[in-house]
Structures are given as C-alpha cells and as structure tokens.
Amino acid sequence: MKKILVLKSSIMGNDSQTNNLIDRYLAARKAKGHEDRIVEHDLTALDLPVLDGELFGALRGAENISPRAK
C-alpha cells in the first residue's frame, strides 16, 4: 500500500485537464489492484493567501517594498 498525496490547484475544477489526468491515474492504479491510501486536498477550496512576485520580493529583502507588501 502506498500513501499518495494529491494536491489539486486548478480553478477549473472538474473541467481541469490536470485534475482529470490525476483521477484517471488513480483509477488505473485501483484497477490494477493497488490499495493506496489517498489524501486529496483541493487548494482552490482553501482560503490561502496569494504569494505573488511583490510579496515574494518583500520576503527576500527587496528594496522599495510597497505598503501592501509591508
């Protein structure tokens, strides 16, 4: 038995090609008899803060940090 962590991050949800690929892969493993322990998280459903270039720069010690990044 394998532990598989699945992190889905597409805002397209069920229409996401990546999410569909993940689902097909897991279904194929199951069809082959694998009894995996799957932990799945939909990151788009969580209220996570956005890390963009501006905030990343502030974390890395950039000069002239904007008020938002402070």
TrEMBL record:
Superkingdom of the organism of origin: Bacteria
Pfam families in alphabetical order: Flavodoxin_2
SUPFAM superfamilies associated with the record: Flavoproteins
Domain Flavodoxin-like fold, chain residue ranges per copy: 2-64
Annotated protein name in UniProt: FMN-dependent NADH-azoreductase
UniProt xrefs under InterPro entries: Flavodoxin_fold, Flavoprotein-like_sf
Organism: Serratia marcescens
